[in-house]
Amino acid sequence: MTIASVKPTKEKKSRRSKQMRIDEKAPLLPTKQEGDDGGFDEFNGASFTGAVFNLSTTIVGAGIMALPATMKVLGLVPGIAMIILMAFLTEASIELLLRFSRAGKSVSYGGVMDDAFGKYGRMLLQICVLVNNIGVLIVYMIIIGDVLSGTTSSGIHHAGVLEGWFGVHWWNGRMMVLLVTTLAVFAPLASLKRIDSLRYTSALSVALAVVFLVITAGITIFKLISGSILMPRLFPDVTDFTSVFKLFTVVPVLVTAYICHYNVHSIDNELEDTTQIRAVVRTSLALCSSVYVMTSLFGFLLFGDGTLDDVLANFDTNLGIPYSSVLNDAVRVSYAAHLMLVFPVVFYPLRLNLDGLLFPSARALVLDNMRFALTSIGLICVIFLGANFIPSIWDAFQFTGATAAVCIGFILPAAVTLGDRHGIATKKDKILCIFMIVLAVFSNVIAIYSDTYALFKKTDSPRE
């Protein structure tokens, strides 16, 4: 440990004394130096690299597949500019959270909300994390089932990878594939008690996202050389009011692309040197925004105006190049594996926040094996059942998921800053927070309106 880490060690001691007095702010996992019967003495702290991979995995989930479609609406120049802008806004909101965490001696996002607004503020955050993360994980599991086992929409069946390889059998049906995935992948990874234990799977998850990017870039470059790709639109095509309104429908996708705030404190608590957390955040955002920009660029170049809302669906057809089917399968399998490894990183804060909501005064979750096991099993069962028996849950979480996500990422950090209980916010901070709240509320209104309109249109269409 470097000399610079002496100060953070003192800070952690002051944090622990705070925890003894105010239980609501206590972390739901013990910090790395605690020597309770959990056996944490041998853990010397998480590395910078492991923290970067865990935070990057939190950010890059299923949303990456929707980004090329935003280029179709906005055009390349405004689209890429918006991706970069949202990265800077996310960095600013996390910076504010960390600053108020230090001022209030809080070691969790819930602690910051409790310090600013009392127990009801903490409960609001925990409910938002529950709604957002359960919705996200159900969607992940639905996508994994679609990719591996296939899906039927509008009477047309799209074969999954396993169906394409082996034909239709009982063992590669949707429920069986998800059951095996849950027991063999999700359950073992979800049983790990420290988020740093997921650093290797997180690194592999980021690598799989890069595999998708490399394959897409390779296909695009091949088709560029062969002259089969047209010049993409650089700016949006605005012709009437409807086309102007359509520009704003992509805002919720961009606003929620970087939501990772619920995992920042968990990663910070396990860092060997807590002064590195800001560098971890900046590095992760730089890595993810680079992946986002390149994926959006190459995805839109490759498919142009034919880019679908989920670009993965574009890889279900002939790409017009040699070994097209092999590359299609490689993209789909790597993406499904990526989501499998993202699952436990998003599950981790879900379990902590549910436990904090139900048992706010109980001892650390990691020290109670029965509570840890029952919470984990219960959540996994809910997610599994949701993915198998309520496929229309996607429609519900288009509303609740987007709303909860922008609350976690922008509205709540901005509200804490505008309240400024410790008198540390500058005028610039408050102006930025007002902008973030306006952007978040505006994006929510647009998302709810467009999703409601699409839902009613879908409902009315069979009657016509």
Secondary-structure blueprint of this entry?
Blueprint: H1 6-21, H2 48-59, H3 67-74, H4 76-103, H5 109-117, H6 119-149, E1 150-153, E2 156-159, H7 161-166, H8 174-190, H9 199-225, H10 241-248, H11 251-255, H12 261-270, H13 277-303, H14 324-358, H15 369-389, H16 393-419, H17 427-460
Antiparallel strand pairs: 1-2
Report on the structure:
The protein is globular. With 464 residues, the chain is an all-alpha fold. A hairpin with a 2-residue loop joins strand 1 and strand 2. 69% of the residues lie in helices and 2% in strands. A two-stranded antiparallel sheet has the order 1-2. Residues 1-41 have low confidence and may be disordered. The protein contains 17 helices and 2 strands. The N and C termini lie far apart (70 Å).
Q: How large is the radius of gyration?
A: 22 Å
Mean of residue pLDDT values: 82
Instruction: Compute the separation of the termini in Å.
Output: 70 Å
Shape: globular
How are strands sequenced across the largest beta sheet? 1-2
Q: What are the main properties of this structure?
A:
mainly alpha, two-stranded antiparallel ribbon, 17 helices, 464 residues
Could you give a short description of this structure?
The chain is mainly alpha-helical. It has helices at 6-21, 48-59, 67-74, 76-103, 109-117, 119-149, 161-166, 174-190, 199-225, 241-248, 251-255, 261-270, 277-303, 324-358, 369-389, 393-419, 427-460, and strands at 150-153, 156-159. Helix 8 (174-190) crosses helix 14 (324-358).
